[in-house]
């Protein structure tokens, strides 16, 4: 097979490999690097003929990802519960024909945050088996353990992930809830805000000082009360395929990004990046 044919075959698998790597690494840029390294290894492969290209590429990408995760932790670049490397995909939140396809390939920011809290081996085993249906025997060869041990890794990860809220209702309905939340915040209608917030809403906050988690509608209401809607501009955007909110400060620069998980007509989970320096490095919609 010549290089052009090999490249064409590789491209057929690229999207799936990037999806796997993004979920494992939390960063689209890191995922692209991992997949590019996979291509280089394929192009330089001189061993036995590859009978199952998709399986071979998944194994190689998985091993590259787990090596990257292990290097992060060994160098102190990442600790458990550190999601500073998670890179949300933020776009205009508009009805488009391609929405259905993009949503099918997206993963909510709330889930990415939980995945970042898993150990490298747990993360890879869960993503490969539970999200991409890779058999445990194959997962074991990628992680470097036994089939039974890979099952235990995925099981531990599954228990941690089970509490992650999932959106319900149509995308349009979820957008309407976020729009109603914005309108109530602007007008100071706290009764309406309370009706739109689940009593036990979980609020993940990433600030320059680190990651904190607050529980309860009153925590969110207190933050809204401290804000000054006359000096801020906020509107709905799409964050990893789900409705979110982008806020600009008086200087016209982004100061906060929120990803909202809406279930049964209420906000049940909010992930916020309240870090102007980090936001300035992100590709965000214009004001």
Automatic annotation (TrEMBL):
Domain SnoaL-like residue range list: 178-261
Coiled-coil ranges per UniProt: none
Signal sequence residues: none
Species whose genome carries this gene: Microbacterium bovistercoris
Domain RNA polymerase sigma factor 70 region 4 type, chain residue ranges per copy: 110-160
Pfam families in the cross-refs: Sigma70_r2 (PF04542), Sigma70_r4_2 (PF08281), SnoaL_2 (PF12680)
Stored Gene3D superfamilies: 1.10.1740.10, 3.10.450.50, Winged helix-like DNA-binding domain superfamily/Winged helix DNA-binding domain (1.10.10.10)
Record note on quaternary structure: Interacts transiently with the RNA polymerase catalytic core formed by RpoA, RpoB, RpoC and RpoZ (2 alpha, 1 beta, 1 beta' and 1 omega subunit) to form the RNA polymerase holoenzyme that can initiate transcription.
Protein name (record): RNA polymerase subunit sigma-70
Gene Ontology MF annotations: DNA binding; sigma factor activity
Protein family per UniProt: Belongs to the sigma-70 factor family. ECF subfamily.
Keywords: Sigma factor, Transcription, Transcription regulation
GO biological process assignments: DNA-templated transcription initiation
Domain RNA polymerase sigma-70 region: from-to ranges: 10-73
InterPro entries according to UniProt: ECF_Sigma-70_Domain, NTF2-like_dom_sf, RNA_pol_sigma-70_dom, RNA_pol_sigma70_r2, RNA_pol_sigma70_r4_t2, RNA_pol_sigma_r2, RNA_pol_sigma_r3/r4-like, SnoaL-like
């Amino acid at each position: 097979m010549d290089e052009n044919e090999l490249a064409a075959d590789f491209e057929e698998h690229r999207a799936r490999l990037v999806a796997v790597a993004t979920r494992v690494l939390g960063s689209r840029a890191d995922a692209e690097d991992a997949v590019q390294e996979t291509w280089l290894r394929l192009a330089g492969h001189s061993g036995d003929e590859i009978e199952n290209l998709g399986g071979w590429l998944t194994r190689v990408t998985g091993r590259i990802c787990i090596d990257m995760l292990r290097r992060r932790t060994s160098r102190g670049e990442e600790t458990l519960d550190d999601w500073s490397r998670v890179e949300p995909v933020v776009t205009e939140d508009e009805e488009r024909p391609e929405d259905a396809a993009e949503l099918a390939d997206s993963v909510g920011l709330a889930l990415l945050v939980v995945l970042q809290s898993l150990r490298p081996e747990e993360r890879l085993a869960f993503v490969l088996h539970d999200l991409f249906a890779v058999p445990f025997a194959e997962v074991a060869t990628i992680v470097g353990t036994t089939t039974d041990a890979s099952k235990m890794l995925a099981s531990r990860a599954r228990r941690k992930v089970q509490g992650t809220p999932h959106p319900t209702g149509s995308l349009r309905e979820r957008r309407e809830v976020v729009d109603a939340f914005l309108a109530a915040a602007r007008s100071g209608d706290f009764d309406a805000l309370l009706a739109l917030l689940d009593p036990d809403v979980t609020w993940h906050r990433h600030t320059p000082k680190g990651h904190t988690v607050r529980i309860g509608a009153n925590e969110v209401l207190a933050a809204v009360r401290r804000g000054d809607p006359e000096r801020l501009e906020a509107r709905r955007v799409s964050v990893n395929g789900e409705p979110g909110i982008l806020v600009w400060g008086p200087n016209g620069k982004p100061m906060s990004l929120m990803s909202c998980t809406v279930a049964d007509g209420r906000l049940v989970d909010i992930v916020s990046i309240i870090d102007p320096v980090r936001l300035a490095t992100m590709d965000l919609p214009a004001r």
